[in-house]
Amino acid sequence: MVVPEALVYGLVLLSALAHAAWNAVVKHSTDAFLQLAMIRSVGLLTGLLLASQLPLPEAESLGFLLGGACCQYAYFFLLTRSYRALDYSTAYPIARGVTPLLVTGAALFFLDESLRPLQLTGVLLVSCGILALLLKDRRVSGTGILLSLATGIAIAGYTTLGAAGVRTVSHPLSFVAWLEILSGAGILLSVLLTQPVQGFAFARANILRGSTSGVIASGGFAVALWATSVMPVAAVAATRESSILFASVISVCVLKERLSVRRWIAALIIFTGIGALALA
Question: Which residues have CB under 8 Å from 234's CB, separation 6+?
Fold first, then answer.
């Protein structure tokens, strides 16, 4: 079945909203790592449920699964530490802002993808708009910036490997399920080995928020990874990184931060880029 591109982009935008939402939950949790572990535990359960109903991924996807899981472990580690060093409205744009350009380069060299001129324009506009959001934060922690940049590199890694892997299997959801299983099992094991008592106590106290965030995170990731099987990965990544717009709205409406004129201009640039991608 051929899926209209406009529908794919719409679903990826919903995925972007989901990503901004669960990241905000992690950032403003009393323990970011344990909150993230709860979210990934839901992903683990979701993956097990899906895997029980689908055939195993083809053998050639194993390397992509393991590589993608390792990049996700690095992402989880770097994400929680960048949130310790910087506030949400700074760390999030840095990490997500560098991703579209990195993914575009990786897709060009490793996936043999090429973008149409309007798609390339859209990717560049989205990237420039997201990075423009950082102009208000020139005096921030250098360590925090490096951690956030490294987070973006990890995102590009698992996005590219996931896109390559999902194209090697006959059932894309099977690949998604096993990637969720591997990434969820790894972080849950780390909690059980290092702080089991604190982990169980945190889970009991935050069961509703953790499970809801986990469902949102797993659903959003599955949509984004599926989209890379039917669309150029660079275009999907650029559209998903519009999550920074939703993060800005969350920071204003929920966290009561001020949205400057510069941020409105950056938002307009991003929307223009998304429009270019949708029309390409």
Answer: 100, 103, 104, 107, 108, 113, 115, 119, 123
